Amino acid sequence: MTIHLDAYAAAFHERCDAAEHAFSCLAPFADADGSFVTGVPGLRVREIRATELVLGLAGETATISLRCAPGTRWQPILAATRTLMEDASLRPLWDEPCVDDNEGRYMRSESNAHGHLDWLGSALLRRARLFQSATNAFHLKGWTMDRKFKIEFVSAVEAGAYHQKFIERLTDPVWGLPLNVHRHECYCRTSPSAASTCWIELTQPGRVDPVLQLRFHHENPSYYTDLRPQFRSLGSEKRWLNQIFPPTAQVTQPSLSHRATDFHRPVK
Predict the structure, then answer these.
(1) What is the residue-averaged pLDDT of the chain?
(2) 186-212 burial, b if ≥16 CB within 10 A, otherwise e?
(3) What average pLDDT does range 161-169 have in this prediction?
(4) What are residue 69's phi and psi, to 5 degrees?
(5) For residues 157, 160, 166 and 172, what is the CA-based torsion angle, rounded to 10 degrees?
(6) Residue 81: phi, psi to the nearest 5?
(7) What is the number of alpha carbons within 13 Å of residue 52 lying toward its C-beta?
C-alpha cells in the first residue's frame, strides 16, 4: 500500500513539511536508558527509494510506503530527525536490527490492549480516501481507548449533511467494512446552528461490543473565519475548499493547528 502525502501540513500554528511531520509522529525512539519508548514501537524503515519511504513492523512481512511530494527527499528528513533526537539524548530505533526487551514490552502491551483491532486499523487505512471524499471535515483525529477505535471529525458545516453518507459508504456491502450501527445519537436537527456532536458506534455482526466510535462535531461557521485562505496557502484543491468552506460563508481566526491529520492517542 502506498500513501501519497501532500507537500505541506499545518501543525503547531505553522505550515510545515508534510513528510517531515509524518515521520516525526511515527518514528520510534527511546530515552537514554531505553526504559521509555515513544512513537510506534517496533516500526522499522525497510527501504528508501527517493520519494518513497517503506515501513514495516519488526518481525512482520507487511509493509506500507509513504510517498512524499515531488522535490522532497526522505534521506535528509531521516538524517535531520536523527540529529535532533541524538542532541536530546534520545536513541532512534527505526533502523535497529532487533527489538530489545523494553521496546518489546511496549509492543506486547499494545497488542494485548488493542490487538483485536488490527484488522480494523488496516481496513480503515485502505479506505482513507473516504475521510476526505465522503465528509465535510477539515480536522480529523483518531485514537484507541476502551478497546475501540475513536475517530472525531470537525466541520464548519452541519454534521448531518454528511455523516449518514459516510456511514453508508464505510459499510457498503461490497466495498465497505462488515460493521453494523449499534448506537446513533444525532443532534443536527435539534441544534443546527449551534455547536454539537453526533455519536455513532459500530459493531461487528453478531457482537455487542462496539469496535469503532465516530464523533461528528460541528461549530457555528462564524467561528472559522479566514480558514479558507489559510488552507488555500497549503495548496488545498479548490473543489475541496468549496465543499468544506463555501465561499459565501462568513467564516474570528483559529490557527492552522486545526488542520490535524495525524493519528494519535491522547491521554484524555
Answers:
(1) 84
(2) bbbeeeeeeebebebbbbbeeeeebbb
(3) 87
(4) -70, 155
(5) -160
(6) -65, -40
(7) 10
* 250 contacts 193 by C-beta, under 8 angstroms: no
Query: What integer is the mean pLDDT of 147-175?
Result: 88
Residue 258 has pLDDT above 60, yes or no: no
Q: Are 258 and 227 in contact, with CB atoms under 8 Å apart?
A: yes
Structure-block grid coordinates of residue 77: 528528513
Task: Map out the domains of the chain as residue ranges.
Answer: 2-114, 127-258
pTM: 0.81
Task: For 143-164, give one letter per residue: b (16+ CB within 10 A) or e.
Answer: ebeeebbbbbbbbbbbbbebbb
pLDDT tier at 241 (50, 70, 90 boundaries)? confident
Per the CB < 8 A criterion, the answer to whether 186 and 146 are in contact is no
* Three cell numbers, residue 105: 514490552
